[in-house]
């Protein structure tokens, strides 16, 4: 295997062409060498604009390329598991975009496939490699803010395009799947445990059928996580983390910019600001996953974590429908 992991990309999704591939161009351990689309001209155009050597007119052709070590899968949600399995069976390691599956039962199939094929499979929560969240976890674990009591996390954007995949229920659209997965993943990580039970309210768009506004209360052993996500609200994101002796505020928790520092506000008496140096979380994700391949280590967000996250998502949907507390 080459010193750099050679990546192929399945599809020319916007997340891939605007965020992930540009970020990976500066990786030390990874290089994107091929992209595939079911429309060859679309693949060629993406390859040309992004400086990618090979373009394929089908996903099968890319998976058959012996010079590809790993695959990034940003396909629509229902295609995540089927094409991740096909890539694994072709001997490729797979970084799959979040949410990794349509439900936890489907996600669990990936662990069996990983174990059978011997490849690495992980979920693309780029926030897991960003230094601002590594610092948050470090502060919480140190006990500086006391015992963790609460996380509060609003996250929203406004998109009523009926053709947009986020507004198509059969494509796994809606607020919870698209962005609610972030506060769930991050609260599980920061609390360092799984929620014991949860309650939720889900409001669906009468035209699309997708959840346009979802709020959930997750009860952890030491405290609560509360989030509200929406596809039809003023664009906003922020995270407040409250401990028994202090607090942390994360200014831009998910869409951290790659051209200016991010900021953490920490108060355990006097309020102080910590500036996190400029970085690209997609570059960091690509290098971390590639390092795991080269060194035989664990990927940033392994399949087991993806399954647990999907189990919480499933429980939020159940709680929204039942009006009862649910257990993941």
Would you kindly provide a written description of the structure presented here, covering whatever features stand out?
This protein is of the alpha/beta class. It has nine helices and 15 strands. Helix content is 35%, strand content 28%. The model has no long low-confidence stretch (mean pLDDT 97).
Report strand %.
Answer: 25-35%
Number of separate helices = 9
Give the name of the CATH superfamily of the largest domain: Dihydrodipicolinate Reductase, domain 2
Distance between the termini: 40 Å
Class by alpha and beta content: alpha/beta
- The overall pLDDT average reads 97
Any idea what the shape is? globular
Major β-sheet annotation: 9 strands, mixed
Please identify the top-level CATH class of the largest domain: Alpha Beta
What's the number of structural domains? 2
In the CATH hierarchy, the architecture of the largest domain is 2-Layer Sandwich
How do you describe this structure in short?
With 328 residues, this protein is α/β, with parallel strands linked by helices.
Topology:
Elements: E1 5-10, H1 14-24, E2 30-36, H2 40-50, E3 54-56, H3 59-63, E4 70-73, H4 80-89, E5 93-97, H5 104-117, E6 121-124, H6 131-142, E7 148-158, H7 175-191, E8 197-204, E9 211-219, E10 224-230, E11 232-237, E12 239-243, E13 247-250, E14 262-267, E15 271-276, H8 281-295, H9 303-322
Features:
Rossmann fold; 9 helices; six-stranded parallel β-sheet; alpha/beta; 2 domains; single chain; 328 residues
């Amino acid at each position: 295997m080459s010193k750099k992991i050679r990546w192929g990309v399945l599809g020319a999704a916007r997340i891939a062409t605007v965020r992930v591939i540009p970020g990976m161009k500066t990786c030390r351990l990874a290089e994107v060498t091929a992209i595939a689309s079911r429309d060859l001209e679309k693949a060629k155009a993406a390859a040309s604009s992004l400086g990618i050597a090979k373009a394929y007119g089908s996903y099968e052709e890319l998976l058959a390329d012996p010079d590809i070590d790993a695959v990034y899968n940003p396909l629509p949600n229902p295609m995540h598991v089927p094409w991740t399995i096909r890539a694994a069976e072709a001997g490729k390691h797979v970084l799959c975009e979040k949410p990794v599956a349509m439900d936890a039962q489907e996600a669990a199939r990936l662990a069996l496939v990983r174990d059978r094929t011997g490849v690495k499979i992980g979920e693309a929560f780029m926030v897991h490699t960003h230094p601002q969240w590594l610092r948050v976890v470090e502060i919480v674990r140190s006990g500086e803010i006391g015992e963790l009591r609460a996380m509060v996390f609003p996250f929203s954007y406004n998109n009523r395009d009926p053709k947009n995949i986020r507004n198509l229920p059969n494509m796994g659209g809606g607020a919870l799947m698209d962005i609610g997965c972030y506060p769930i993943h991050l609260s599980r990580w920061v609390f360092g445990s799984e929620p014991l039970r949860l309650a939720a309210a889900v409001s669906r768009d009468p035209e699309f059928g997708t959840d346009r506004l979802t709020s959930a209360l997750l009860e952890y052993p030491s405290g609560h996580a509360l989030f509200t996500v929406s596809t039809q609200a003023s664009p906003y994101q922020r995270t407040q983390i409250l401990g028994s002796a202090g607090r942390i505020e994360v200014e831009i928790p998910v869409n951290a910019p790659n051209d200016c520092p991010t900021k953490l506000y920490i108060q355990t008496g006097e309020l102080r600001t910590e500036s996190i140096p400029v970085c690209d979380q997609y570059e960091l994700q690509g290098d971390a996953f590639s390092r795991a391949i080269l060194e035989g280590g664990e990927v940033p967000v392994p399949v087991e974590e993806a399954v647990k996250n999907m189990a919480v998502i499933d429980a939020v949907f159940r709680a929204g429908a039942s009006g009862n507390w649910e257990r993941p």
